[in-house]
Records
---
Amino acid sequence: MKYTRNTMLLLSALFLLASCSRKITETGKASYYADKFEGRKTASGEVFKQGGLTAAHRTLPFGTKVTVINVANGRSVKVRINDRGPFAEGRVIDLSKKAAKRIGMLTTGVAPVEIKYKKKK
């Protein structure tokens, strides 16, 4: 099959754009907040609510929206980062109880997860 110069340029451009994707994937373990944190202020200044779809991450900017996928069962939830943590080794995110329930990790307390988000420009 013979390609024209324009076709080759177009294919090269598409390849470069695809390889410069801003999507980031992080893996590790997720846990969820204990009930004693209900009503306390988060690092962002918001009041923590177990019924919200929020989470704590060590470095992501407040307001970042991430998708958390429970690797064990494939269930996912979208949450907004509004706090710092977790500070237990090997854990990458702390979820509100509502978010933890959505991905089916209330009984285990900790679950292997994949976190996906878009890196800001």
---
Amino acid sequence: MNDPGMSRLAMLRFLERVQERDLARTRRWIAQEEQRETERQRGLAARSPAPDWLIERHRPQRDAVYVHVGGCWNAGSRSKGVERDQALRALAEGVDACPQCWPDTALGILD
């Protein structure tokens, strides 16, 4: 870029072209990121709501292990969303309440 034959104006025009190219690239990156964010938001909106109650089961057996409040951090990967009456029935049949989220308290069951 140190060509003594290039005028100052020619160097400035060259710099302008480089900056326009860089700006166009940055604008493409911004548009791509906006598209990704739009798709992420659309995916979140389309996601079904979390269940209010969960029943966790053992893998080898089909016996229920715990009843959880929906969204409990301690619910295992083998948890399934259930309706309120199913959670109540499971607790009445002796399935343990999760000791972290206390679904029995949330369901209004008193010992």
